[in-house]
Design brief:
Helix content is 62%, strand content 2%. The chain is mainly α and 396 residues long.
């Protein structure tokens, strides 16, 4: 009996070894054949091939580095703005600066009367508070396309993994999904800036800088220098987004000089919060669908891009709503929303602490392969619930 079992195991081992050998031979054979063909070619043929391979390996090396290094990524980056120290809502007049005020006081007290030339009256230059929301949108986009390469429009990302979209593989797509999630938050914000926040409803026109910024941010996320639909040369996606950054900063410069409008009324905040809550609700539905219908643990190749898109969206909205707390500070104080607003931001921070090395889409009660999508969906819904509560308080 033992001899028969031993013989069976030996036969199985030989079969496995033979199978591995055939697999290795199948993989190595094309390279050996190519090496043999290459060795017989003239230098005029060899040189272009070597140059092509060097360029190809260089591009893949650059692509790998760009997808793995996330420059400027910091879920707590909004703390550096110190927006909680702002006391004036966006678009409203700032108090006169100290040097100008002191000079005005000196003139009014007659201390410059000994001068033979009458002193010219000191007139304080009018300044208004810039928008923290606009700053956040510009800086998020800057991190996407200037501090980092925009992955989704890179040539090798578009070519995919042997023709398979990188989003359908577990490799090298996390950063691209995160960037698109951030961009989704910025796109929604730019639309609200154009339609409501950057104008007095019914009595002013659309701000051209905001309009241009929105148009550029809505551009296709996958555009490279050349395309086939339509066929021909194109302007790549990052160029459009860089123009949007310039337009956003131009709007804030005009707002600081009191030459633009930011309408920080409570009904505008209601609509803004409502649109963000709806956007997050749609993302939570996508996470739930993937979690319930494709629970393959570590082997779900789309789980990582779903997770990191939602993470990027929360990352972007955390910055935007932190900024909104400064731009609408007067409304938040008058409606006694400070505690609820801070709790909402705490929900964002709790969600952003989830950073798994490998995203798993397993069963919700799984021990070995957890369900990171369910966890992210839960946090997304909790954030949305807080935003709905904020909207309810503002509606009263």
């Amino acid at each position: 009996m033992l001899d028969r079992l031993k013989a069976s195991l030996q036969t199985l081992g030989k079969a496995i070894a033979r199978g591995i050998g055939l697999l290795v031979a199948g993989i190595v054979w094309p390279f050996r054949a190519a090496h043999g063909w290459y060795g017989e070619r003239h230098l005029m043929v060899k040189a272009p091939i070597v140059a092509f391979l060097v360029i190809l390996f260089g591009l893949y090396g650059y692509f790998f580095v760009q997808t793995q290094i996330w420059t400027g990524f910091n879920p707590s980056f909004v703390d550096a703005y110190r927006w909680n120290e702002r006391t004036v809502p966006a678009g409203q007049d700032l108090p006169a600066t100290a040097p100008v005020a002191a000079a005005a006081a000196e003139t009014s007290n007659g201390t410059a009367a000994s001068s033979p030339v009458p002193a010219a009256p000191v007139v304080a230059a009018r300044q208004c508070q810039s928008s923290a929301i606009v700053d956040a949108a510009a800086d998020l986009t800057d991190a996407n396309v200037n501090q980092n390469a925009w992955i989704s429009s890179m040539l090798l990302y578009r070519l995919g993994f042997f023709g398979i979209s990188w989003d359908n593989t577990p490799f090298l797509d996390n950063k691209a999904s995160f960037q698109r999630g951030v961009n989704q938050a910025v796109r929604r914000t730019s639309s609200e800036l154009v339609d409501t926040l950057g104008r007095v409803r019914g009595t002013s026109g659309v701000n051209t800088n905001l309009q241009d910024a929105r148009g550029n941010l809505q551009f296709d996320e996958y555009s490279w220098y050349f395309g086939v639909d339509p066929f021909g040369f194109k302007t790549p996606t990052p160029s459009y987004y860089r123009t949007a950054i310039e337009k956003l900063r131009a709007f804030n410069a005009d707002l600081t000089a009191c030459n633009a409008t930011f309408d920080s009324r409570s009904d505008n905040l209601v609509q803004f919060v409502d649109r963000i809550a709806n956007d997050l609700g749609a993302t939570a539905a996508i996470l739930r669908d993937r979690s319930e219908n494709h629970a393959a643990g570590w082997f779900d190749t789309r789980a990582d891009d779903r997770f990191w898109f939602a993470y990027g969206q929360l990352y972007g909205y955390y910055a935007v709503l932190s900024a909104a707390g400064a731009d609408f500070s007067q409304v938040i104080r008058e409606r006694n929303l400070t505690q609820l607003w801070n709790e909402t931001l705490s929900r964002f921070r709790a969600a952003l602490r989830i950073q798994p090395s490998i995203v798993s889409n397993g069963a919700e009660d799984g021990m070995i392969m957890p369900s990171h999508l369910s966890v992210m969906g839960f946090h997304t819904l909790m954030v949305r619930s807080n935003l709905v509560e904020v909207r309810g308080v503002l509606d009263r």
